[in-house]
Amino acid sequence: MPAARPVRVDIAALGVSAPLVDLTLDSRGKLGVPDPAERNLAGWYRDGVTPGSPGTAVVVAHVDTPTGPAAFAGLDTLRPGATVDVRRADGTVAAFRLYAVEEFEKSDFPSARVYGPAKDAELRLLTCGGSYDPEAGGYQSNVVAFARLIAVHPPDPGLPGKNDSHDS
């Protein structure tokens, strides 16, 4: 697929339809996160691969916020075969199928495996997980869902607003 900014991530199995914001690396080289005040918000690493293009695209969301569950609550319950749709600004939808969901201790996070290059179009969904220890900085693990592109859906002119990057 040609590059097009992703605007929304949909995970039917979780009832998630979250708008996507651009994320960058912080001053320490760590991937930023969406605004924690927004429960239904996800972020895409904008300096990486566009979902649907060859390589590894990265989408991040919180598991919870101070006001309750967030967009990726339940990510750890997904199983291989679940689907994730990423709507793009050009109206296309990149459809992905999960092939693994794993939890990694933050102290032993496999960055090369998660963020490393892929020959085909792949997607990584990331959130916090594991035990929560406020004195140790919060969640002690990350949950990562690994997915591969299975289909590309063209814009549907019969559904006004469905392909609009401003719908919520």
Mean pLDDT figure: 90
* Estimated radius of gyration: 15 Å
Largest sheet: 8 strands, mixed, barrel
Number of domains: 1
In percent, how helical is the residue content? under 10%
CATH class: Mainly Beta
Main β-sheet, spatial strand arrangement: 1-2-3-4-9-10-8-7
Structural class assignment: mainly beta
Question: Can you count the beta strands?
Answer: 10
Q: Which fold name is given in CATH as the topology? A: Sortase, Chain: A
As residue ranges, the low-confidence spans are 160-168
Report on the structure:
- With 168 residues, this protein is an all-beta fold.
- It has a single domain, classed as Sortase (Sortase, Chain: A, Beta Barrel), CATH 2.40.260.10.
- 3% of the residues lie in helices and 46% in strands.
- The chain contains one helix and ten strands.
- The chain has one helix at 111-115, and strands at 6-11, 16-23, 42-45, 55-61, 64-65, 68-69, 83-88, 93-105, 121-133, 138-153.
- An eight-stranded mixed barrel has the order 1-2-3-4-9-10-8-7.
- The model is unreliable at 160-168 (pLDDT under 50).
Q: What would you say about this model in short?
A:
The protein has 168 residues and is mostly beta strands.
List its traits.
disordered C terminus, 3% helix, mainly beta, Sortase, Chain: A, 46% strand
Topology:
Blueprint: E1 6-11, E2 16-23, E3 42-45, E4 55-61, E5 64-65, E6 68-69, E7 83-88, E8 93-105, H1 111-115, E9 121-133, E10 138-153
Parallel strand pairs: 2-3, 4-9
Antiparallel strand pairs: 1-2, 1-7, 3-4, 5-6, 7-8, 8-10, 9-10
